[in-house]
Amino acid sequence: MDNRDLTQLSIIEASQGLRAGDFSARQLTEACLGNINQKDQELGSFLSVFKDEALDQAQLIDRSLSSRKELPPLAGIPIAIKDNILIHGHRCSSASNILKKYSAAYDATVIQKLRQQGAIFIGKTNLDEFAMGSSTENSAFQVTHNPHDLERVPGGSSGGSAAAVAAGEALAALGSDTGGSIRQPAAFCGLVGLKPTYGAVSRYGLMAFASSFDQIGPLTKTSQDSRLVFRSIRGQDPMDLTSREGYFNKKTEISKLRVGVPEQCFGEGISSEMVKWTEKTIDYLKDQGARIVSLDLSGLDYSLPVYYVVATAEASANLARYDGLRYGEAETAKSLQETYARTRSQGFGMEVKRRIMLGSYTLSAGHYDAYYQQAQKARKVIEAEFQKALVEVDLILTPTTPGLPFKIGDRIDNPVEMYLSDLLTVSANLTGLPAVSIPVGREGKLPVGMQLIGPSFSEDFLLQIGSHLEWLS
Ligand code: GLN
């Protein structure tokens, strides 16, 4: 098998190949490193690559394999990690100048878990600064390109992770999703992207953006792979008191499925291509015997403004720690006040500053009631509406994005237009519900993703249904 083929394997195929002795973990890792070498200059997926360490890790796995030790399924699998998740001893920048010299003092819980499984960390991937954005253009260091069309964005904020997997630079990646940052890049790059139930995966060691929304999750080629990675990172963690175990036992065959489709999926702001693919997916589900229920979720119309009020408020508080004293590269100045001001004005990029200002404004005395509190009330209403819908139907189907991957540079000067990319993804974060983006097909060379949202802790169920929808045509 040549190197190119190895990097096109799913985790499950690669894992079988390793066990059958068809190739070694070293060969698999070398194949991914080969792609990084060849393509990453152009793609810009990685902020750092752990070549020697990855090869050493691979060698250890090969030794265990040859002594016929029973190994977990992720052993020997090269995985890329978004650069807002801590790996002990490695730089973790969140693609921000303020953290360009920061080195992680400990492993995130998800990293500890993957390490125990024998996964190979191949490098850290690019993102929008502090995960704020939908195109990865907000990185302080580089722009990442979509492997399917280099003139277009890979989505964001986990754009580096998505591009890396789509280009065969890693077999899977971790991303973080606060308002769509795993699902939207997965849709733009033709991958499966899972945003787990809030609390299903520990956030310990993830740089906080909006703590009541943030979740870590996998970007993979297939739904089965997604399930595998999710199973190895989930679970309650004493280091994150919002993490919890949850159960969902209902198994519904696709032929008995009740699928809810919000009316908004055909409304304003949704491109004709996305409407077409939603209809195609609906037709397929109907052919399989599923029942389609049209949902009137009026809360969806408010989810974007609610998200941007709450997310910026939480971000303004979370980012207070980057002051040059607690965290961040301090700029020298005469007074303490001036040190703060210089450090923060030089260290943060435009979008991050915009959000800190918006968040500080909506939390300030006199505006708190009108914005923050109002948004929290609306969030409760949206949550109740989704819970009610999920009694009537087994899952909710929407396109993941309102349109196809857009061109690099097209939206960067228009923040509101950029925020509209999150129209269909933010409600899963507002409600804490699990959601997955499944690649259903292509428009020309550009991939199209559909989103499934389900009840709390229904990830396995969503991925099982999702596996039927992969690459419908
Ligand atoms: N694009 C959204 C935002 O900019 C979501 C980001 C994310 O999920 N991290 O806030």
Structural notes for this entry:
By secondary structure, the chain is α/β, with parallel strands linked by helices. It has three domains: 3-233, Amidase signature (AS) enzymes; 254-298 and 379-437 and 452-458, no CATH class; 304-370, no CATH class. 40% of the residues lie in helices and 13% in strands. The chain is built from 16 helices and eleven strands. It has helices spanning 3-7, 11-20, 25-43, 51-66, 109-116, 159-166, 183-189, 223-233, 272-287, 300-318, 336-347, 350-363, 369-392, 415-419, 426-431, 459-469; strands at residues 46-49, 78-82, 120-125, 172-177, 192-195, 215-220, 258-262, 291-295, 395-399, 435-443, 446-453. Strands 1-3-2-4-6-5-10-11-9-7-8 form an eleven-stranded mixed β-sheet, sandwiched between helices. Strand 10 and strand 11 form a beta hairpin. Helix 10 (300-318) packs across helix 13. It starts with a helix and ends with a helix. The relative contact order is 0.13. The model has no long low-confidence stretch (mean pLDDT 96). Bound molecules: glutamine. Residues 131-134, 157, 177-181, 209, 311, 422 line the site of glutamine.
The CATH class of the largest domain, by name, is Alpha Beta
CATH architecture descriptor text of the largest domain: Alpha-Beta Complex
Major sheet characteristics:
11 strands, mixed
How many domains? The number is 3
Q: Provide the β-strand percentage band.
A: 5-15%
Q: How big is the Rg?
A: 21 Å
Q: What is the CATH superfamily classification of the largest domain? A: Amidase signature (AS) domain
For the terminal residues, how far apart are their CA atoms?
A: 28 Å
